[in-house]
Structure formats: C-alpha cells, structure tokens
Amino acid sequence: MLSHRLLPSISFLKSNGHIAPGSPHPLGATWDGRGTNFALFSANATKVELCLFDTDGRREGQRVTVPERTDDVWHVYLSHVSPGQLYGYRVHGPYAPEAGHRFNCNKLLIDPYSKRLGGHFVWNDAHFGYRTGSKHADLSFDKRDNARSMYKSVVVDTAHSWGHSRRPRTSWEETIIYEAHVKGLTKLRDDIPEGIRGTFRGLSEPGMVAHLRRLGVTAIELLPIHAFVDDRYLLDRNLRNYWGYNTLSFFAPEARYAQGDVVNDFRSTVAVLHDARIEVILDVVYNHTCEGNQLGPTLCYRGIDNASYYWLHPEDARYYDDFTGTGNSLKLAHPRVLQMAMDSLRHWVETYHIDGFRFDLASTLGRGPSFDRNAPFFAAVQQDPVLANAKMIAEPWDLGLGGYQVGGFPTGWSEWNDVYRKTVRRFWRGEGNLIGDLAHAMTASAAQFQHDGRGPRASINHVTVHDGFTLFDLYSYDSKHNEANGEENRDGSDDNVSANCGIEGATDDTNILAMRRRLRANQLATLFLAQGVPLLLAGDEVGNSQSGNNNAYCQDDEIGWVDWSKTGSDDDMTDLVGRLTGMRRRFPQLRPHRWVEGKKADGSYDVKWLTPSGGEMTEQDWNFPDGRFLSYILAAPGKDGEPLFIMLNGADEPVEIAFPEWPDIRQWQCVLDTSNGHPNAPAGKPGESWSAQARTVLAFAGLQ
C-alpha cells in the first residue's frame, strides 16, 4: 500500500493545462465531454483531497488538493479525467467526537453523489476512524489507510437515448403494486436463463413479464437497489444483508444485481417493463446510512461532515439521535442533506425513468427532530417539477417519539396502511366485533386519510409485505421461526395476528390444507375488493413460504427467494389474482376518486351497508358484539354501470342471506366465490334467499 508521503500531490496555487478551479455546481463528478468537474460539500472540513485510482481501484495514482471553496462546496475541474475514472476523497478536519466531528484523512471516502461504485469492498478494522478494541473506543484515532479495501466512486456519462420507450403514467386509481426483491423474484425461476436469474435483466425476461401481466399488476416495487454494504456482523455469521436497507450511495445502483454494466442493465430493464405498461417504483432509504452509530465505520458521510449529515444527540454530540433503530438518522433538516436527497430522487427519475418511490421509515424524513408534516423535505417534494408525476409512498412510522404517523403525511402522498392490515388479519383469524372496523378498512380508511383534499388512493392496502410472514406462512404458523437468522429467534415481530389452522408448519391434513387455502383466497379477495391501492407481496400468489421466518432480511438463500415450485398446484392462486384485478378494471367503484358517503342528499346511495336479511344496517346491527359477517353494495359511478354486492363471512358457520333490492336490478350474478374457487350460485333475484358458506368472500354484479 502506498503511504501518504509517497503519493504525488498537486497544490492548486495556479491553474495549468489539466487543472482549473471548476464550479461548485452541480455536486458530484460531472463529465462535460472534455473533462470532469468535482464538487463536494463539507461545511466543517479544513482541507479536501481528491484521489485518483487505476482501473481496478487498487493503486492510488494521483492525489489532488482541492483549493476552491464556495459556500462550503469544495470544487476543481480536471480536463484529463473522463468516464471510467475511479476516485475518492480524503477530508481533513478536527477529530473531536464530543463536538460532533469525526474527520480522519487516513480514510478514503466515496463521493455522496457517486453514480456508480467500482473497486472492491472488504471489511477490516481500517474502515473505522477509531482504533477498534481501544479502551477509549471511538475517542481514539486510527491512522491506517483503508483505500485498498474500500469502494471507489466512478466518473460516469449519464447520457442515454430511450428511443421509443414511454412511461406508462398509470393513474393512482388504476395502480396495483407488486412488491418484490430483485434477486429473490427470479433466482428460482426455471423459465429465465440461469446466468441472469437474480439480476436486473431477469426482471425483464419474457416469462417474468408475462407473469406480471397475467396477474394484472401495474407496478413493481423493488426493495432497495441503491448501492449498499453487507453488515460485518452478518458476514461473520455467513449471512448477507439481503434486503438492502443499508445504503452507502443514494445515486448508484447496486452492482450485485447486474450481469454487465449496472447502469445500462438497469435502464434497459426499466425500458422493457415500461413497454409492458408496468411502472417501476423504488423502495428508498433516506432515513439512515450504513455507517451505524458512534462505533460504526467511516465510509462516506461521517468522514465528510458528520455534524451536518446526521442528527446528533443535543446533550452529547458524540452520540447519534437514532429514530430508525439502525444507529443513526440522516438530518434532512440540513439544507445540503435535503439537497442531496432531492438531487438523488431527480437523478432516478431523469436517468432511469423511475415512476415512484416508497420511503422507508418516512417519519424520519419529516423530523426536526419531532415530526412535522410541513417539514422542508415534504415542501421540497411538493414543489419539484421533476417529481410532479412521481408516485410518493410513505412507510408512515419510525422508532422515535411520535413516529407513528399513519394518515399524517401531506396531500399528494400515499401511505402504507397498517390499520387495514391489522383489521383484515384479525377478521379472517375469526375475531368478532370487527364489522365496523372492517367496513372502514374496505372503504380506504377515511378516518385516517380523509383530510386536506386527500382521496382514497392515499391508502396503500396490504396484508403482507417483505417484513413479516408471507401469506402462506400467515396461515401455517402461530409463531415466528427465525432461528436461521442466528439471533436465537429474538428478532422479528411477535405480533403477527396469524393462525396455523391447527398444526404448526407443514402438514398432510387435507382439512387443514383446505382451510389454509380458503383463508389465503379470502385475504386476496378482500385486498382487491377494498377501495384504495392494493399491494401484493411477490410469491403470495403461488404459495411461497419462508418456513415461518418473519424477518428474512439476512436470508439470501432459499428462505428469502420466491419458491415457484408450487406453480400449477392447488396452492397456485395466480388465476384468482388475475380474476380479482380484472374485477377492479370492470367495477370502477373499487377504485374511486372520491370518498363514499352512504346515503346522499338526493336519497341515493354510493354504499349501502346491509344485514343478512337484505335490510339496511342500524346502529344496533353495527354494535352486534359477535358480528363476523359484513355485506354491502357499492353503487356504480354512472347510471348504466353495474352495482357490486359484496359479502365477507368470517364466521365458522354458513349465514343465510337475502339478495337485496336495488333500483332497476332484476338479478344478482355471482362473480366471485372463494368457498370453492368458482361461482356456485350463478344468479339470485332480489328477495331470494341463499346460504353464504363459512369463511367465504362473495361478490355479485347487479344486472338490469
């Protein structure tokens, strides 16, 4: 390894043929066709050095002192640097953890605006700014050079022709989301060439695209693809950070998902999905970074300007305010950190044509340090013309005080609705006294979201997501089984609202298997019949199981990958999902622009809640303590449209029902029956009686 003293250094007291002061804008490395401008923000640094490396990132060939500083941005222009150049920074300044400063010029740092990462990252103690094992912990200082085992930033040319590719521009009301992991979705699919399974290109293979089209989904939401690092403690246990919620760079795509050039691989994948009318939404993590708490490594932000990038404890700046449970929280209240997040979002929209973002632990984005729905980040998003058509989805909570904010986000945002999830899980587990809550959940949770001009699409309804049981496991396990994670089953939630139907885990009992299939079908039907935006977890349609693991964040193996082996079996509900998404297209009242009111001023109904006998529900009916049956009619928005009569029977026994009266309707045609997968009551006239089977969802279209 080359020492600091042996490296060639250039001091910019004057410009020469290759070197000029450059510009403070834009931040990052920008190639203009003739040379590259470098610009790095650091308010508290005393000196910045730009380091240039050879093509494999192992040898530092030149170290350049950056002389120009404008409004806390250090900048220089190098005419001899072109795309493909590997580089990093060494940032000088005080190492004073008690004051919030952790500068260490011995540590090579990536550019926060890196568009691609090169070289190799190998965990070792040199990545820490302090001497690991010292009795003074992070108050000590480490002088080792980490460059040889550290990632390098790469100068890239982002110019690209998208040809005839067009963004789908799917309206919120038409949106149906499919949440998936890039690798896990295709790693075990036999219809994809083995060499590209688990990669970006695997997502755009004909077999995968055909499956998404068959399901009827309109958007695929990808777990984090921003460049991230595997936690050292996981590697020590032969595990990986599979999910990727450990961001190192907010601008660079993760190279492990590429077969060739990662930038081109991902762009071409997005183009193919767009051609199939499928939008691409990214799960993004602007709430924290991979650098952890005060004992974490120094890889980027900590070494560039710790006091600016992170929320520090107000009484002792040595420690971090941790709203996320990861050790640190990004301080988006700082103008330059906010700028980085906004520049990152625009980069993904402009460079990769991304259609939307799901923000992990989004309450942290609005902290100052308490949550504020008018925080600078939300205001910046709302006014940004580049992001005007991008879908914004919040995971509306974090771990800090007041972090649970379901319904608390501004106009224009949609949110993961765990009120819906908890309610439908409890209902189909067989709990009583929930029909009021269920009615609320089926009509987009107005109590949470009907304010400030927000519409039903604000509610992202979901039964399962990556975090928790799969749908198959929800009805196969009463308890989590996370032993493979190496934490003695202590990790993951204990509140799963699940039911094993009589036996924990796998069984050959035909009655139990039939009940599990019925409950899965009921949850899928409930999800797609509910107003709001449905989100389906990848693999739930084919009975994917994680063997009871409800926290597979570190399982980059058969536990975490989607198992497609049940395709075509009794557990395969792909056809059911396709029928349900078809129903959403057929019945516009399932995807409304406006909230339902019940009985309107003109005496008509947009929703009418019914008793089993077909009459309108009274307050006494709503308060029936053991109620496990809900039925209602959703009116069509137009005079000639079809009303939809929906019944959800969560009871353990059949319920006798009467087909209701409705203006101009002479017959109710069954369009969905989860009791056997096919309609078993082809039609019923108003006033006629019929028996709704136990634990069943039914839907009927009104015919004139």
In short:
With 704 residues, this protein is α/β, with parallel strands linked by helices. It is built from 15 helices and 29 strands. The chain starts with 8 loop residues before the first strand and ends with a strand.
- Compute the separation of the termini in Å: 82 Å
In percent terms, what proportion of residues is strand?
A: 15-25%
Q: How many domains make up the coordinates?
A: 3
CATH architecture of the largest domain: Alpha-Beta Barrel
**Overall helicity:** 10-25%
| CA-atom Rg in angstroms | 28 Å
Given helix and strand content, the structural type is alpha/beta
Counting H and I runs of at least 4 residues, what is the number of helices? 15
Strand order of the main beta sheet, please?
Answer: 14-15-16-17-18-19-20-21
Number of strands: 29
Shape: elongated
Largest sheet: 8 strands, parallel, barrel
Overall description:
The chain is elongated and about 85 Å long. The chain is built from 15 helices and 29 strands. It has 3 domains: 9-154, Immunoglobulins (Immunoglobulin-like), CATH 2.60.40; 172-589, Alpha-Beta Barrel (TIM Barrel), CATH 3.20.20; 596-703, Golgi alpha-mannosidase II (Immunoglobulin-like), CATH 2.60.40.1180. The strands form 6 sheets. Strands 14-15-16-17-18-19-20-21 form an 8-stranded parallel β-barrel. The longest helix has 20 residues, at 510-529. The protein has 704 residues and is α/β, with parallel strands linked by helices. Strand 7 and strand 8 form a beta hairpin.
Keywords, please?
single chain; 6-stranded mixed beta sheet; alpha/beta; 704 residues; disordered N terminus; 3 domains; TIM Barrel; Immunoglobulin-like; 8-stranded parallel beta barrel; elongated
